[in-house]
Specification:
Helix content: over 70%
Structural class: mainly alpha
Strand content: under 5%
Distance between the termini: 76 Å
Radius of gyration: 21 Å
Length: about 260
């Protein structure tokens, strides 16, 4: 068994262990998209190992680009779901369109990140590689920003490190930071010389196990009992409700002229 195979096997076992623990605890009832995302990661990893022995490098590149786009969309939906879970203490008081508002905020954050998610040497890549690297970097930065925002506002949101939302955000941040760091290093190393090719392969091996730290963290965290979710601080609750109320008033005001015209 080669080292590459061993590293991929370690990653598969770690991911399967987390999925098994969450299935045992019926965690998929609370955050089904996050649970499905973990299964998606496991399927992609297993498929990449099998397809590597079947298709050429050119075909694999096209397959991985499609997989990266799907993964980015999946991650985006997971962040929306996680945000709505964070808002669960006041969910009943929020309007039904809140989920679209949260998705819009995350989409704006992604749009702001997108122009800057270009590492050195990006322009020298071919178009398919540019798409792959651009998507990978943008969707690595977004979970990091999300985690920093969640951790920074944890006191107002009444979140502790024992709450599942912050634990999941931390794990996503760990994995995203590892993925972003490896992508930047690979872009700097390149494949121009035999030594660079060897270093690039080592980074590929590191990327194969980049899931493991996050999975181990989740295994330890999810194995522990979770405390009952606390209510927001009064200041944060009033702020969020006022924000939702202002947004609702703005929507009504935008509809009024057209309603008047129809009459």
């Amino acid at each position: 068994m080669t080292l590459d195979t061993k590293l991929e096997l370690i990653s598969v076992v770690a991911q399967a262990a987390v999925i098994g623990l969450l299935a045992f605890r019926k965690f998929y009832r609370k955050l089904p998209l996050f649970f499905s995302y973990l299964i998606w990661l496991l399927v992609v990893l297993g498929a990449s190992v099998m397809l590597a022995n079947v298709y050429s490098a050119e075909v694999l590149k096209k397959i991985f680009i499609v997989a990266d786009v799907v993964d980015a969309a999946f991650m985006f939906c997971v962040l929306v779901e996680l945000s709505m879970s964070v808002l669960s203490p006041i969910r009943s008081a929020l309007p039904s369109w809140t989920v679209f508002g949260v998705a819009g905020i995350l989409a704006i954050a992604f749009a702001l990140i997108w122009p800057f998610a270009k590492p050195p040497g990006f322009a020298t890549l071919d178009i398919p590689s540019q798409v792959e690297v651009h998507v990978d970097m943008a969707m690595s930065i977004l979970p990091i920003v999300f985690f920093l925002a969640l951790a920074g506002c944890s006191q107002w949101l009444s979140l502790s490190w024992r709450d599942r939302e912050l634990q999941i955000g931390t794990g996503l941040g760990i994995f995203a930071l590892a993925s972003l760091s490896i992508t930047l290093l690979k872009m700097n190393v390149g494949t121009a010389t035999p030594e660079a090719i060897r270093t690039y392969h080592i980074l590929d091996q590191a990327q194969a196990v980049s899931y493991v730290p996050a999975m181990v963290y989740w295994l330890v965290s999810f194995a522990q009992s979770v405390p009952e979710r606390r209510d927001f601080t009064p200041q944060m609750e009033n702020f969020l409700l006022a924000l939702a109320g202002n947004a609702r008033s703005a929507r009504v005001a935008m509809r009024e002229p057209s309603d008047f015209t129809k009459k």
